[in-house]
Amino acid sequence: MSSEGSTTPRLLPRSDHTVSRKNIHPDALKVLYRLSNAGYKGYLVGGSVRDLMLGRKPKDFDIATDARPNEVRRLFRNSRIIGRRFRLAHILFKDHVVEVSTFRREPDPTEQKSAPEELLITSDNAFGTPEEDAWRRDFTINAMFYDISDFSIIDWIGGVEDLERGVVRTIGDPYVRFREDPVRMMRACEIAGRLGFVIDPASQAAIHELRGVMEKASPARLAEEIVALLRCGSSGRALQWMLDLGLLEHLLPEAYDMVRASELGLGDLGRILPELDGEIVAGRELADGVLVAALLLPTVLLRRYEADRAKRRPLRVDEIAALVEKAADSFFRRFPLSKERSRQASEALGGFLRLCQPPARAAERMRTAGKSFFADALFLFELMTKATGEGFEELAQWRAASHRRPVLTRGAGVALPGQGVRPSGAAARPRRRRRGRRPH
After folding, report:
1. Around Cβ 375, how many Cβ atoms within 10 Å?
2. Phi-psi label, residue 293: left if phi above 0, alpha if psi -120 to 50, beta otherwise
3. How far is CA 26 from each of CA 22, 33, 58, 354, rounded to the nearest angstrom?
4. If DSSP codes are grouped into helix, strand and coil, which group holds residue 297?
5. Which residues pair with 107 in a beta bridge?
6. Which residue in 27, 51, 62, 155 is the catalytic one?
7. Is 62 tagged catalytic?
8. Is 66 an active-site residue?
């Protein structure tokens, strides 16, 4: 492995790696070639190189260059400069955005607004060389470059070796890297979960010791990272890493409700996230608010369990809304989601609880199926049934209602997992047809 300050990177010629231009997004190729043809360096960087070398399809194709942001702006009329802490260019295509950043170096401490004893980076616009840019990235497997000029892989840090070993390792001292940007601790767990890699022991120790530093991270950035984690298709494994290293205690205490649910005999609600991952991997399109609702589902179920024990009757619509608001309040206060995301999450959770109630008759089921929240609520219902192995009969009836098909049996409602089906009272009597008065 190279050491910081070296001048000779490891170069993999095209014949020694599997990255092919046919697997790079056409828009990213256009940007790379235009930069190169204009005399600038154009490197594909970060997770896209890592994923291409693993034979995976990258989510994004980010590019690094020696062109300054304003030079990129002049070269691409379809671009805009964004960011203050980290200025970069977005190249806008019809259905795609390519992110272009200028090579950075480690920022000077005098340029930061954080306290002198802190390492938190508040400004990151110190431009540098490709080698300096590689050293300032987060993990070795994210610091490899693909050079469009000769199709080679450039590795200053030892990322190729860690990629072969399946290791997530910080670049440099992990205690420094995580204090500079606490979100990196969360990303280490997400990458390890998504790729099936291990986190190296030094990074694990640093995450466990510095887990309280997460409170200094930007709440808006954390909210985006949480949504991204839920969408990655491996959120269950990622959260297991976070649980093992103590991160959830400070970041997502709601996750412990999965454990509490099991202790109460409500079923293995820890299966909800793996089931969610399966749906995402299968290609199911889900809104951000629904992903958040899935994360909060165990918390809401515990609240319903408490309410059922206290009231011993189905909850009214206003009581359901109040229950969801109370259950999700702490999460929404810590993570400033958009109004649309928060609204959709709350409506999906409230709708889910309404699907658990015993409707009076089949016609009421079909009316409920016409509500705007129904599709999202039904998805949460599916997650619960798959995770706990209970409620499939009721799920089939709600699916029938969603297709406006009458059902022949009257559902009794769905109890909490592990509690059996609650009786819904005496069977409904057939309604008597009112006779009109005979004309005299």
Report:
1. 14
2. alpha
3. 8, 11, 13, 46
4. helix
5. none
6. 62
7. yes
8. no
Strand order through the sheet with 10-12: 10-12, 152-155, 145-147, 42-45, 62-65, 97-102, 88-92, 79-82
Q: What is the pLDDT of residue 124?
A: 52
Of 60, 147, 244, 308, catalytic: 60
Task: Tokens for 269, please give them.
Answer: 């609600």
Q: Phi/psi at 231 (nearest 5 deg)? A: -95, -5
One-letter identity of residue 353 = L
Q: Which of 66, 138, 181, 277 is catalytic?
A: 138
Q: How confident is the model at residue 85 (pLDDT cuts 50, 70, 90)?
A: low
Closest CA to 231 of 182, 269, 193: 193
Contact 148, 44 (CB under 8 A): yes
Give the closest residue to 206 by CA, choosing from 235, 247, 249: 247
Q: CA 294, CA 220: separation in Å to the nearest integer?
A: 20
Residue 415 half-sphere exposure toward CB, CA atoms < 13 A: 15
Decide if pLDDT at 43 tops 80: yes
User: pLDDT tens across 243-290, in order?
Assistant: 999 999 888 988 888 888 877 877 788 899 999 999 999 999 999 999
Contact call for residues 245 and 189 (beta carbons, < 8 A):
yes
Q: Which residues pair with 63 in a beta bridge?
A: 44, 100
Q: What is the pLDDT of residues 94-112, one digit of tens each?
A: 889 999 999 998 876 555 4
pTM assigned to the model: 0.81
Return d(Cα 280, Cα 193) in angstroms, integer. Answer: 15
Tokens representing 440?
Answer: 């005299």
Residue 216 DSSP SS3: helix
The values of phi and psi at residue 222, to 5°, are -65, -40
Identity of the residue numbered 166: G
Report the half-sphere exposure of 319 (CA within 13 A, side-chain side): 13
The Cβ of residue 17 has, within 10 Å, a number of other Cβ atoms equal to 17
Distance CA 436, CA 189 (A): 71
> Residue 369, class by beta-carbon neighbours within 10 Å (0-12 exposed, 13-18 middle, 19+ buried)?
buried
Phi and psi, residue 342, nearest 5°: -65, -45
| 60 counts as catalytic | yes
